[in-house]
Amino acid sequence: MSSVFEIIGPVMIGPSSSHTAGAARLGKMARSIFKEHIERVDLTLYGSFAKTYKGHGTDRALVGGLLGFDAEDERIRDAFKDAAEENLQYQFIESSDEGGHPNEVKFDLYGKDDYHMSIVGRSLGGGRILVTNVNNLEVEISGEDYTILTFHHDCPGVIAWVTSQLGKASVNISTMKVFRKRKHCEAVMLINTDEPVDAQVMADIQDHKSISSVMYFEPLEKAVAE
């Protein structure tokens, strides 16, 4: 079944759902994943994004999303001014590489003490997005679900541990995928749930020797700017 985004498109500021609504949602998703205060960001644009980002307002939409603005927020028009007021430093890099999708962007985000995270995402049209890579590990994040990411060593027992913690908390899993570079190496588990997950459950999940870090974020429509 088609979503309302696919049928009529989203309410948005700007001429193109892919280049503005999708871009704003990508920026907001990157902000949600990064969690920390963003001090500076390099945005590498690929394909159509790189060719038309100024004329289509993609640049303002991406920065607005990083500030926590929704696609329909009129403040996107003045996103550069708001970024300056928030001391958010940014630069756009036009890549000659076509990337993995015509509307793709890589965020290199930096926080306090040069804390760094790389996030790659693409705008699929109609305001829909997909984050495909976090810190050089493959993922699939749409921004439409309650989502848990675990970064862990690929070994027996990790999946059972995580699912048991969610089961004890009566959290229902809607989808789950595991990505790994190769056997017994670094891996990522992506879990979407029907309910929000509280901080204690996340702490319980983290309490496994093979799990290096855990992330949790809510659907973009529920994400509130700091």
UniProtKB/TrEMBL annotation:
GO biological process, one term: gluconeogenesis
Catalytic activity of the protein: L-serine = pyruvate + NH4(+)
The entry's keywords: 4Fe-4S, Gluconeogenesis, Iron, Iron-sulfur, Lyase, Metal-binding
UniProt-listed Pfam families: SDH_beta (PF03315)
Cofactor: [4Fe-4S] cluster
Pathway, per record: Carbohydrate biosynthesis; gluconeogenesis
Residues annotated as domain ACT: 147-219
Stored PROSITE patterns: ACT (PS51671)
GO molecular function list: 4 iron, 4 sulfur cluster binding; L-serine ammonia-lyase activity; metal ion binding
UniProt key word Hydrolase: no
UniProt-listed InterPro entries: ACT-like_dom_sf (IPR045865), ACT_dom (IPR002912), ASB_dom_sf (IPR029009), Fe-S_L-Ser (IPR051318), Fe-S_L-Ser_bsu (IPR004643), Ser_deHydtase_bsu (IPR005131)
Family that this chain belongs to: Belongs to the iron-sulfur dependent L-serine dehydratase family.
PANTHER family: L-SERINE DEHYDRATASE, L-SERINE DEHYDRATASE, BETA CHAIN-RELATED
Family matches, as NCBIfam families: sda_beta
The name this protein goes by in its record: L-serine deaminase
Organism: Veillonella seminalis ACS-216-V-Col6b
Lineage: Bacteria, Bacillati, Bacillota, Negativicutes, Veillonellales
